[in-house]
Amino acid sequence: MSDAIRICMWSGPRNISTAMMRSFENRPDAAVSDEPFYAAYLAATGLDHPMRDEVLASQPTDWRAVADSLVGPVPGARPVWYQKHMTHHMLDGFGLDWSRSCRQAFLIRDPARVLASYVVKRGEVSLAEIGVERQRELFEREADRLGAAPPVIEGRDVLADARGKLSALCAAVGIPFDDAMLAWPPGPRASDGVWAPAWYDAVERSTGFGPPPDETAPPALSDDLRRIADAARPHYERLAAFKL
Question: Which domains does the chain have, with CATH numbers?
Answer without folding.
Answer: 5-240 (3.40.50.300)
